[in-house]
Amino acid sequence: MVTTRRGRRPAGGGVPLTFEVIAETLREQIRTGGLKPGDALPTQSALMREFGASSLTVQKAMALLKQDGWAISRPGKGAFVAHHDQAEADELDGPSRETVPVGGMAARVEALEQALAEAVEQLADLHTRVAALEAGNGEPAR
């Protein structure tokens, strides 16, 4: 296989890169039910060990899964298999299922709603702390 000076394969190369292999392996586990919507995806360190890959390679694979709607992140908790509508799943049979991401827009909306809920919780906590400091006692009111 021909590679460019920086070690990248040229466009149209036939062998998938490691991050693509990792992403496809996880997609296959989701398609076959080994990983179900809401399940935690393997950790970065577990994937690094399993595939002999660098952290950057694993991060690229996870970014690809998230971009395509197969996974969502929950800050401080990890990455999870995206939920999808049952109607969407019922329409998918056979080989075409491999090219359609689970979740898509619904997964992105769910991730944004989760992030918003966490931000609101953090703001409420900060508000309580500021109110306590303004009251002059230095202790948060609980």
Q: Can you put this structure into words, describing what you see?
A:
The chain contains five helices and two strands, in the order αααββαα. It is mainly alpha-helical. It is elongated and about 65 Å long.
Number of helices: 5
> What global shape is seen?
elongated
| Terminal Cα span | 64 Å
Secondary-structure-based class equals mainly alpha
Strand order of the largest sheet: 1-2
Most strands sheet: 2 strands, antiparallel
The percentage helix is: 40-55%
- For the CA atoms, what is the radius of gyration? 20 Å
Count of β-strands: 2
The whole-number mean of residue pLDDT values reads 76
The low-confidence parts are 1-8, 85-102
Listing every helix as H and every strand as E from the N terminus to the C terminus, the arrangement reads: HHHEEHH
Percent of residues in beta strands: 5-15%
Key traits:
two-stranded antiparallel ribbon; mainly alpha; 5 helices; 142 residues; disordered N terminus
List the helices and strands and how they pair.
Elements: H1 18-31, H2 44-51, H3 55-67, E1 71-74, E2 78-81, H4 86-90, H5 105-135
Antiparallel strand pairs: 1-2
Helix pairs in contact: 1-3, 2-3
Q: What's the short story on this structure?
A:
The protein is mostly helical. It has 5 helices and 2 strands, in the order αααββαα. A hairpin with a 3-residue loop joins strand 1 (71-74) and strand 2.
